[in-house]
Amino acid sequence: MADTLTLDRVRELDADDPLKSLRAAFVLPEGLIYLDGNSLGPASETALAGLDRAAVQEWGQDLIRSWNSAGWFQLPLDLGDRVGRLIGAAPGQVAVTDSTSVNIFKALSAAAGLRPGRNVILAEGSSFPTDLYIAEGFVASQPGLTLRLQGEGERIEDMLGPDVAVVLLNHVNYRSGRLLDMAALTRKIHQAGALTVWDLCHSAGALDVDLDGAGADFAVGCTYKYLNGGPGAPAFVYVAERHQAEARQPLSGWWGHARPFDFATRYEGAPQIARFLCGTQPILSLRALKGALEVWEGVDMAVLRRKSLALTDLFIALVENRCGDHGLDLQTPRDHRARGSQVSFSHPAAWPLVQALIERGVIGDFRAPDVLRFGLTPLYLRFEDVWNAVEMLRDVLDSGVWQEARFTARHAVT
Amino acid sequence: MADTLTLDRVRELDADDPLKSLRAAFVLPEGLIYLDGNSLGPASETALAGLDRAAVQEWGQDLIRSWNSAGWFQLPLDLGDRVGRLIGAAPGQVAVTDSTSVNIFKALSAAAGLRPGRNVILAEGSSFPTDLYIAEGFVASQPGLTLRLQGEGERIEDMLGPDVAVVLLNHVNYRSGRLLDMAALTRKIHQAGALTVWDLCHSAGALDVDLDGAGADFAVGCTYKYLNGGPGAPAFVYVAERHQAEARQPLSGWWGHARPFDFATRYEGAPQIARFLCGTQPILSLRALKGALEVWEGVDMAVLRRKSLALTDLFIALVENRCGDHGLDLQTPRDHRARGSQVSFSHPAAWPLVQALIERGVIGDFRAPDVLRFGLTPLYLRFEDVWNAVEMLRDVLDSGVWQEARFTARHAVT
Fold first, then answer.
1. In this complex, which of A73, A133, A358 lies closest to B257 when CB atoms are compared?
2. Which residues carry this modification: N6-(pyridoxal phosphate)lysine (chains A, B) (predicted)?
3. B389 with B33: CB under 8 angstroms?
4. Quick one: pLDDT at residue B213?
5. pLDDT confidence of A157, banded at 50, 70, 90?
6. How many beta-carbon pairs below 8 A join chains A and B?
7. Which of A192, A353, B205, B401 shows the greatest Cβ crowding within 10 Å of its Cβ?
8. Beta pairing, strands A120-124 & A164-170
9. Is A128 a catalytic residue?
């Protein structure tokens, strides 16, 4: 592929891109190639406008009345349905609320509660750490429960047994970008009598997720990566409709009450997904997210997925063609069926290389101990951006600039 | 008192008010008398400016780099210390994070874990409901634990026994505005071998809370009422320094890890208050709160408390003097030692009365079934506002306008 690739050909890909008009919806700093949308998505004009209106008019002028007049109280379920469309969830199954970590706790609690005779939570050792930390905290709080981790070389499907209640899986691995087959794994897990909790942090907004189609049970994910909802924007939780009547979670705050403004003494869980709400939500952050989701209206997720794969294909081909002798080791699967929307390479000098790239306006990120990670996001990235990023990477590698002290001396904070 | 009160005298109180310059820090809609700051505090210029900068510059232009360059990652503990000063907590004991409801769950978990031989959580039946709902969810998740509720006429100090692990108390009651004696109750609870979780939602920023001085163990509270942090701004959690080494809570997400960016497989709780963090926080909402807290710099909480009591004294005296024959029944204690910063009256027509007042630009709120609730907030309210609000209340009552169908037909949503 790379042999036939020229800048002219790359520009043709941009000209033919059915999503090209969406780039204009975003605020993108001049001169920057942003390959970190898998960590924090950029601002859009509608997100900033929605936030400004929420702050200046709704809070500043309308004050307490905005809980009704601006629909603040309905935002978690309203936004939940909007996110639902992007992850293959029919309405009434998704709430936007709290953090991913808190939602994992709720989902694990509810799922384990639906499998009372079983005592094992199974998770990937390579999972994003907070998933494991929450699972660890949850099992420590429940006498008899155990957390079992998939080790390197082990397959989830071989670890299922009559003691496994819940399997917690990362749809796309945060480090390698490896994509799991949700439908196939869910089927095997169900055959073994267990339930699934899917973490979609690195797949929601990155590809054509199909929760309902896969028969998923529970899912969680964040909205500040590929969905571009703003730093730390509230997360989402999905509960399949068939589980909602029986599912219980212990963070039973007033927003999950059937009639919160009755101020009753006893808890009575709201029907359906609202029972997975807990306390009062950060409205300003939710309003930015609401604006961000407007950009997604009308986006065909199959078209998005095609562009994503074309972007990652191009990036891999160009890096291997132009930086092939510098010891970058591809961590992301070549198989489209196993690839998310990021490309990761390992390299002993990953940290200084990422710093040198950032100084030159190509923002990717570093994941300990040795991974360079690049998010190739289809809504606002051009094929020419990929070309230019790889040119910069080649230049950094060839020049040896990354060996200078200012790049090697520091340690990662984020 | 009321006999000697004239508008001239009230204006003198404003002229002599040591906090009068702070009103200019707030965005207050023209023509509105806002007596609902106990539910949602108004915006300040610094809150709006901080939010705008966070959105347009930090997110829009600096993107992922702002986690370090703008101090986003440090916001929960940075703001925690700022809130700490206002509630009598020395640095390192408060984190701003998640919702009040989620923080109650953490505090109850940690407190119960420190009293392993005891199996009762004791709470007020008149508590703000979410406290009870969370306690109910927590005890349901822990075999052997029981929730015991204080009934009407019962005294907390008479309900303590060797089985009580934790007492969950509202410092100021959300409905009546009654203030509990934190120091005295904490002493009695400690004498009985139990620990305290204080809910400060209606006292933080309303009066001179002294957590350290009272020997409190755990506390939670919100920042969107008297602290004016913005709608649904993240809540806070306090853990007394002496408990931090031993206290454990099950929402052990990555923000509470000792080294979150090591991406280790096993959880290792951060030392001190950071262990009460869980997942990624809504930064835009936190940045509005940060701006809001700037208004508090240099505010003497004893001076604040004196003005608060003078405002509520004036309000009670004027209502009784001018609306005394309309059947309003004072629910708030007259005793200063037992009064927060709100005044509540019960009245059979509370709902339409509140609606008629709102239509005339005096915003208080209704709490089911029959309470009119008015927050008298010292930072931005003038004594003349109190005078004018009572004049409007008298006019509404005298005119009978509240009996019109448009006020009586609707039901409360918030």
1. A133
2. 225
3. yes
4. 98
5. very high
6. 294
7. B205
8. parallel
9. yes
Residues B257 and B177 in one domain: yes
Q: How far is A223 from chain B (nearest CA, A)?
A: 11
CATH code assigned at B339? 3.90.1150.10
Q: Is A59 within 8 Å of B43 when comparing Cβ atoms? A: yes
Mean of pLDDT values over B178-196: 98
Distance CA A116, CA A128 (A): 26
Q: Which residues of B touch A143 (CB under 8 A)?
A: 143
Residue A248 near residue A220 (C-beta atoms within 8 A): no
Proportion of chain A in helix, strand, coil states, percent, rounded to 5: 45, 15, 40
Where does a domain end: B294, B318, B348?
Answer: B294
- Whether the CB-CB separation of B169 and B199 falls below 8 Å is answered with yes
Its domain, for residue A102, covers 49-294
Contact A101 B279 (CB under 8 A): yes
Contact assignment for B254 to A138 by CB distance below 8 Å: no
User: Min CA distance, B354 vs chain A (Å)?
Assistant: 13
Pull the structure tokens for residue B137.
């969810």
Q: How far is A166 from chain B (nearest CA, A)?
A: 17
To the question of whether residue B97 is assigned a binding role by annotation, the answer is no
Interaxial angle between packed helices A283-294 and B283-294, expressed in degrees from 0 to 180 and rounded to the nearest 10: 140
Residue of B nearest to A175 (CA): B263
Q: Which residues of A are annotated as a binding site?
A: 100-101, 128-131, 199, 202, 224, 254, 280
Question: Into how many domains does chain A fold?
Answer: 2
Question: Cα B16 from chain centroid?
Answer: 27
Contact list in B for residue A129 (CB cut-off 8 A) is 254, 257, 260, 263-265
Is B289 exposed, middle or buried, given 0-12, 13-18 or 19+ CB atoms closer than 10 A? buried
- The percent of residues in chain B predicted with pLDDT above 70, rounded, is 98
Could you give the CA distance from residue B257 to residue B274 in angstroms, rounded to a whole number?
Answer: 8
Nearest residue of B to residue A73, measured between CA atoms: B414
Are residue A35 and residue A137 in the same domain, yes or no?
no
Extended beta strands in B206-314, E state: 218-221, 236-239
Q: How far is B372 from chain A (nearest CA, A)?
A: 15
> pLDDT-derived band of residue A408, with 50, 70 and 90 as boundaries?
confident
Per CB-CB distance under 8 Å, the chain B contacts of A175 are: 263
pLDDT digits 0-9 by tens, B374-408: 999 999 999 999 999 999 999 999 999 999 888 87
Q: Evaluate whether B235 touches A279 at the Cβ level (below 8 Å).
A: yes
Predicted ipTM of the assembly: 0.97
